[in-house]
UniProtKB/TrEMBL annotation:
It comes from Ornatilinea apprima. Residues 16-170 form the Glycosyltransferase subfamily 4-like N-terminal domain. This is Glycosyl transferase family 1 domain-containing protein. One of its GO terms (molecular function) is glycosyltransferase activity. It holds the Pfam family Glyco_transf_4.
Amino acid sequence: MRVLYFTRDYTPHDHRFLSALSEMDFEVFSLRLERRGMQREDRPLPPAVQQVVWKGGTSEVDVRDYPHILGSLQKVIDEVKPDVIHAGPIQSCAFLTAMSGYRPLVSMSWGSDLLVDADQNAWSRRVTRFALQHTSVLLGDCEAVRRKAQQYGFSPDRVVLFPWGVDLEQFSPGEDGGLRARLGWEDHFVLLSLRSWEPIYGIDVLVKAFALVARELPRLQLMLLGGGSQAGMIREILMKNGVMDQVHFGGQVTNEKLAGYYRACDLYLSASHSDGSSVSLMEALACGKPVLVSDIPGNLEWVESGKQGWLFKDGDVESLAQGIREAVRQQESLAEIGKASRALAEARADWRRNQLRLGEAYQMALDLYEKNMERSSGTTRF
C-alpha cells in the first residue's frame, strides 16, 4: 500500500508516526505543509520514508496561500499515486486534501484542531465541516475527539481511536541518572512541568499555583522545561513571588534524556486547557509517576483522582495549589500511586500495540472507498 503522509510540519510526533509506518508493509511518502521552527524534529526521516519536494514545506504558510499550494498538491498526488492519504491537522492538511478531491482520505485530528480550533469562528467551522464531509476515516486519540467530530455530522462508526502511546521500555520506572543529586534536591519534593509556554497549556496557572505553595514549603521545587511566547510573563510571576531559586529551568530536553526528568520528579503537573490523550501524561504514567492534571475531557479518560494521582479544576490556581498540597501530604503513598500509573500505561499506552491501529484505519478507508465506487457504478461484487 502506498501512503502519502501529509502533515503541517516535521515534529517528534511525526517522526514517530513515520517510523511506525516504515516498519509496516507500506511504501511511505512524507509531505510537509510548512516550516514553522517551533518543536521541529532534528532527526532525519526514517530511511524507508521518501520525502516529497513541492511548492510547500519551506516556510510558514497562511490560509491565503492555500489556493496557490493546491495545484502543487494535485501534482504531487498525480505523481505519487497513493492508495491512501493520511492528512492532519483538520483545518490545514486534511482540508487541502479534501479540496483536491482525492479519496480515500484518512484525516488525523491532533486534538486541539477539533477540540479548540474548530469553533474559533465561522470560517473555522466551515473548513472543519468541509474536511470531515470529505473524510473516509478519522483518526483520533480520545473519546472527546470522536464526540466533537460527531457534532460536525461525522459518523462515529468511521472514527478509529488510538492513544498515540509511548515506548514502554524507554519510559519506565528507574534511576534518574543523578539529576536530583546534581540539583541538590535529594530530600526535596520535586514537581515537573514540560508543556510549551503557550496560552493553551496553562503554564501561567501552573506557576501561580506553585508560587502559592512554594512560599509555604521552602523544600518544594519545580523543574520547568520547555519555553515559548509567555516566557517573560512566566519569569515575572516567579520573580514577583520570590520563588525563582526554587525553580530549575531545563529548556528543551532531547527525547533521549527525557525519561530521566520524569524519574527525578515526585509529581508530574499539567495545567493544559485542551488535550487529547497527552503524550507527556502517558510518558509520566509509564515512568510510574503520580500526576496532577486539569480536569479536561482528555485527561478524564486517563486519570482517576486518588488512583493515578489527582485532578484539579481547569484554570483554577487555588484548586491546583490544593492538589500540590495534597500530594505533599501523601508522600508515603506516592510509590503505590506510581504503580497504578505504570499499570495503566502498560494496559493502554503501549505504542508498539497502538500503532497497529494506523493500518486498520487505512484498510477501513480503502474498503469504504471501494464500496462507494461499486455503489456509484451500479456493480456488485460476488
